[in-house]
Amino acid sequence: MSARKLAMVTFRALQLAFVALVAVGVLFDPGVPWWCVFLPLVLAYVLITVVNRWNGGAPDAPGRSREPVEVAPPVAGRWSALNSPADRTPSHGIHAYGQTFAIDLVAEPEPGARPGFRALWPLARRPRDFPAFGAPLLAVADGTVVRVEDGRRDHLSRTSLPALLYLMVVEGSVREMAGVRRIVGNHLVLDLGDGTHALYAHVQRGSRTVREGDRVRAGQVLARCGNSGNSTEPHVHFQLMDGPDPDTARGIRFTWRGIGVPRNGEVFDAPEPATVPSGSPASPVSPTSRD
């Protein structure tokens, strides 16, 4: 186990220790000093701060200093960008999980097609209410599939104030303690060669068309956009990283051929691939796990 992986496992163990101490205190009143209860939580966030700096690296670290890797966009059609590295890095607020230069995409086929945020009602919407749900995810370059998971459910949106608070305070914390797979949900990782890996997160359950070990070509349909994992609505989370495991990888800069890196709120049109090879036959997944 690498030092980074061990640090992330320890981080989650400390969080679980805090929850256990709180539960013991509520149920049995053992008389433990309050600072002992909060000590694992403090240590956990000291550790994740260290990991965050570690994964971010120095200004001349490999993922930060190398030229952006040019690849094709992972989608086709009309989309807009959220949490873009063109506006800030780390784009999602932390370097952890290899997402220093990650980007989120939501489908914008026409004005008003995507339901907006509501303060109170509706509390949540079905994934199919969003135009991104079910959109094809395309291989950004020739590569090899090294990770595939698509047995987790696509949950309702978190696009109201109560639902967003639930995500931030309860659901997000539980997923973080459960591990990176609960955070990214259904996902695929491609090895593009030269130490570069592409991650597609929040994939639609049961939609993958490839298996681990398959060779894929640029433009090939790999799966479809979903709303699994730590997601507010169906969207594409895409990132390049220097390893196959988001727990230990560092982010790598990317640029999309013919597009660049769209800024937050920027609407862009990604062209359809000239040819879209069919994916390798894939047997249905038996969904043995649930969120």
TrEMBL record:
CDD domains: M23_peptidase (cd12797). Residues 273-291 have a biased composition (Low complexity). Pfam families: Peptidase_M23. Residues 171-242 form the M23ase beta-sheet core domain. One of its GO terms (molecular function) is hydrolase activity. It is an enzyme of class 3 (hydrolase). The keyword Hydrolase applies. InterPro entries: Cell_wall_metabolism_enzyme (IPR050570), Dup_hybrid_motif (IPR011055), M23ase_b-sheet_dom (IPR016047). Keywords: Hydrolase. Residues 265-291 are annotated as: Disordered. Its EC number is 3.4.-.-. Gene3D superfamilies: Glucose Permease (Domain IIA). PANTHER family: MUREIN HYDROLASE ACTIVATOR ENVC, PEPTIDASE-RELATED. This is M23 family metallopeptidase. It comes from Streptomyces lienomycini.
